[in-house]
Each structure stands twice: as structure tokens, then as C-alpha cells.
Amino acid sequence: MDYKIPAEYELGIPYLDEQHAQLVALTDQAQTLLKDDSTIHKLEQLTEILRGIQDYTVYHFTEEEAFMETFSYSRLDAHKKLHADFIKRLEKINGKLSDISPSTQDAVLEELLGYLRNWLFEHILSADKIMAEESLSFAFEDL
């Protein structure tokens, strides 16, 4: 993977850090499309980007939740709810695509980008960092 997240967002769990980087890279595709003034009708690309984000997010959440289960994470249910809420919000944004027009497509892209950036970075810095710290304490319990 070419994209690397800033060090302060790394959990110290390489495969989860790589997955977070992939989610940020997918988000950057939406940013690139938003800046593209030469494309008048962005619905097809927006649909493809959103589908890619949704698919990868489900994969990532499945992986992350399986990891949390390996050490009986104390906040697993709350963390799963955060994930479920994120997916519901993406579905809500996806629902807006049926009414999109060239005059509204950038507003939908901006909503998607704003939500993704805020949620991803807040989630990584708060919920995921707490989870990673607990996983490390679990790993060292038997030493």
C-alpha cells in the first residue's frame, strides 16, 4: 500500500493500521472527484467510490471486531455500535444518490467527505486507541 497514515493515528497493530490507511486512501478518492471540475456528471464515480468505502469498511470492521474478541475487549459492544452507526450513516448518504443531479452532486460529496474524515480520525484517535491500549495490556498479562 502506498498510503501511510500519520504516526499519531497508528495503533501499533500493523494490519489494522494498513486497513485504516486504505480507508483514508478511499476517502481521498472522493476528495479527488470533488476537485474534478472537468467531470459534469459524477454520479457513476461517486457511486463506485461510496460502494468501495462501504465494502472495505464492512471488511475492516469485521477484522477489527474479530481482533477485539480475541482479548475479550471490555468495550466490544459499544465499539460494535459505533461501527453499526457508521454503516447506517453511509447507507443514508447512499440513499441520497437516487436524487442526485449535477447541481447537488458536490454537496453530497462534501457531506460524505466531511463525515468520513471526521469520523475516521476521531474514531481512530479515541475508540481505536483505547482498544489498542487494552489489547497491549492483555498481551502482557501473562509475562
Write a structural description.
Helix content is 74%, strand content 0%. It is mostly helical. It has a single domain (7-33, 44-140), classed as Hemerythrin-like (Four Helix Bundle (Hemerythrin (Met), subunit A)).
Question: What brief labels describe this structure?
Answer:
143 residues; Four Helix Bundle (Hemerythrin (Met), subunit A); 4 helices; elongated
Overall mean pLDDT score? 91
Q: Spans with pLDDT under 50 lasting ≥5 residues?
A: none
Main β-sheet description: none
Q: What fold name stands as the CATH topology?
A: Four Helix Bundle (Hemerythrin (Met), subunit A)
Indicate the CATH architecture.
Answer: Up-down Bundle
- Give the domain tally: 1
> What is the CATH top level name?
Mainly Alpha
Shape label: elongated
Percent of residues in helices comes to over 70%
User: What is the distance, rounded to the nearest whole angstrom, between the alpha carbons of the first and last residues?
Assistant: 34 Å
Provide a count of the helices. 4
Structural class: mainly alpha
> Looking at this structure, what is the CATH superfamily?
Hemerythrin-like
The SSE string, one letter per element, is HHHH
CA-based gyration radius:
17 Å
Tell me how many strands there are. Answer: 0
- Percentage of residues in DSSP E strands: under 5%
Short description:
With 143 residues, the chain is mostly helical.
